[in-house]
Amino acid sequence: MTQAISPPKSTPSGAQRIANALELLESNVAIHRRIVRTGDSVYQVGQPFACLYVINSGFFKMVNLSGEGREQVVGLHFKGDWLGLDGIAAGRYGCDAIAMDTGEVWAIRYDALLQAALRTPALLTALHEAMSRELTRDHESLLSLCTLPADARVAGFLRYWADALAQRGLRTDQITLHMTRAEIGNYLGMTLESVSRAFSRLARGDVIRFMEKGRRDIHIPKVEALTSFIQHIAAPMEAAAMH
Asked: DSSP letter string over 146-192?
């Protein structure tokens, strides 16, 4: 008798994966919900580590102090991301987590999460996946800073933001950047003037359009055009490196 072969299981979309993870946490571990507004700190560098935080809504930036004492944006986070993972090893948070918009975070005690994971191993899997995504993001960010010229970095930043929205089931053709040009430059290792010139060149090439002069609302007709723009700039550099 021939056994029927089951069709392969479809991989859930980014939005569904995030919804599943939030539901898993909500059902199995105690959560303290906190509403934050622009500029609020979720935690600050040096504070004793006790909780991990999961973003239910809003946009957040991770800020650290450079060797010269300047604030340095070292990470961006969206719905479904975990905050505070850097505190596990040292027992203290390694940077400030600051809200860039009104949002909600879920505080979960780390010891309670580990206890709950003994009963529900899927919780530990969710934690490991969050750590893995964080490592991947860090590697991609470092690669961008080390290898791409200024205009391509800005295009890559916009593509990253649009991709993050797409993974959460949100529209990508019109995005609101919750960062100033100076903050974007800080994050990308560029001056404010270089960021502004890159935005202007992207607009002249019709890769992006400004919805209103001086505002942070940006229209992206085709996200693929950002990828093409990056490849077009990076290609001569790669060719030169081969010679």
From this structure: HH--HHHHHHHHHHHHHHHHHHTT---SEEE--S-HHHHHHHHT--H
